[in-house]
Specification:
It is a single chain. The chain has a 5-stranded mixed beta sheet with strand order 6-7-3-1-10, with no helix packed on it. It is built from 1 helix and 38 strands. The chain is mostly beta strands. A hairpin with a 3-residue loop joins strand 37 and strand 38. The termini are far apart.
């Protein structure tokens, strides 16, 4: 009996130990996979905010991949070529795009990267086409318009101001990628912008001062005393915004040395002048053109100053018949200038091109072929002129012209500065690099 009790106790102990051993195995800790932390990538800046097709640009940021195969950059869906990549910099070349300001998207390992860049392009990069030195090329303009463009002022190959008839004055600082309404400009009248992006402009209600970045209000800052100025188509001010000259439509000339108080320094004796176009080099070299009544007929006329000592002069074209007006003028320096005189009834009837080599003291007719409407010159020999949708070129001072370019729309104005020619059609800028 005693042996039987011992066997039963031993069996129970064995079962108990076996059960504990089994439970112990089930409670052992499980091996979890290591936690992988994926850091968020983001773009913080660019090496440049704009460039030309084929130009190398870098994107800077955080937590990029160093594998080029992981990276994709597109501009309106057009892929860029990735050159190199690190965790903080991706280098690539700008592709050719239809728009000048396409939408940029950076993808790394199929994830779109957050873009924290705050620039004037809303975090994008502007892309200009490769400038051609062998022919003309076009880029889209910021808005379509068939309005006339009375005047263009170019300050560099990238900075340009222009006014449309009855519309605001627009400007670009980046070669045409973006445009801003810079000022109100009544009647397509005179304006002048300085290299600092400020200036003076006839707003339709008088002469206003335009602040840096543009001003669309009315700021009649000038004190003309008891004088009535009227519309001014010739305005010039130095970069200091103090030394300036204004020539009114009726031939009154006002100057200032402090940018506020103006003195009348010249006035055409009778009231028969109508000056509605001009060109200015500085305060001592200004030519305002239009027509003046001469013996009961209207004839081409220039009111000008071409040096520091002689003062203001009048040049009436007394040999021209009635109905011919001075319409466009361009001076490449203080001595060499060109003038378009044409005749209108209801349509353009005749055009004559004149040239001066002594600052406007005398003029000679050099061409009477195509009926050009606008023109520009690089120097005393090389120039371009518009006839409807065509651009003609001269290399001998205007006596011979040859067809240089044909566009699919009428061309409204043309200008030259710093080895680049700009022309404007309805929805295109037409360029030529020299």
């Amino acid at each position: 009996m005693k042996k039987r009790i011992l066997v039963v106790v031993a069996l129970q102990l064995f079962l108990t130990l076996n059960s504990c051993s089994s439970d112990s195995g089930n409670d052992s800790p499980t091996q979890e996979p290591p936690v992988v932390v994926i850091k968020t990538a983001k773009v913080t800046s660019y090496s440049k905010n704009a460039g030309e097709t084929g130009e190398t640009v870098s994107i800077y940021g955080e937590n990029f991949s160093d594998k080029v195969s992981d990276i994709k950059i597109t501009f309106d869906g057009v892929p860029a070529i990735i050159l190199s990549a690190t965790a903080s910099e991706i280098s690539f070349t700008l592709p050719a795009t239809e728009k000048l300001l396409p939408s940029l998207v950076l993808t790394i390992a199929n994830r779109i990267v957050t873009n924290d860049v705050k620039n004037t392009y809303n975090g994008n990069i502007g892309i200009l086409p490769i400038p051609s030195t062998t022919g003309w090329f076009t880029i889209p303009i910021h808005r379509k318009s068939d309005s006339a463009i009375p005047r263009i002022q170019m300050l560099s190959d990238k900075i340009l101001y222009y006014t449309q008839s009855g519309a605001r004055l627009s400007r670009t600082l980046d070669g045409g990628i973006t445009w801003t309404d810079w000022a109100n400009n009544g009647f397509g009248a005179g304006f002048h912008a300085t290299i600092n992006d400020e200036g003076w402009c006839h707003t339709g209600f008088g002469i206003s001062k335009i602040a840096v970045g543009g001003y669309l209000g009315i700021d009649e800052f000038a004190n003309f005393g008891d004088n009535k100025v009227g519309t001014a188509y010739s305005i010039y001010v130095d970069d200091n915004m103090k030394d300036g000259t204004i020539v009114s439509q009726k031939g009154k000339v006002f100057t200032t040395k402090n940018g506020v108080d103006f003195t009348k320094v010249y006035e055409i004796e009778d009231n028969g002048a109508n000056l509605y176009q001009a060109t200015e080099i500085d305060n001592d070299h200004i030519w305002a053109i239009g027509y003046k009544e001469q013996g009961n007929i209207n004839q081409p006329f220039i009111l000008f100053k071409n040096n520091t000592t002689d003062g203001w002069k009048e040049y009436p074209f007394v040999k021209e018949p009635a109905g011919y007006y001075a319409r466009e003028i361009c001076f490449v320096d203080s001595e060499n200038g060109f003038l378009l005189i044409n005749k209108y009834l209801k349509t353009l009837l005749d055009v004559k091109l004149f040239k001066t080599i002594n600052g406007g003291d005398s003029w000679s007719q050099i061409y009477n072929g195509e009926m050009f409407t606008k023109f520009t010159f690089k120097d005393a020999n090389t120039g371009w002129a518009i006839l409807d949708n065509k651009i003609y070129k001269t290399i001998n001072g205007g006596s011979v012209w040859t067809l240089d370019y044909t566009h699919d729309q009428p061309i409204r104005n043309i200008s030259y500065k710093n080895n680049v020619v700009w022309a404007f059609s309805t929805d295109k800028i037409i360029k030529r690099y020299l």
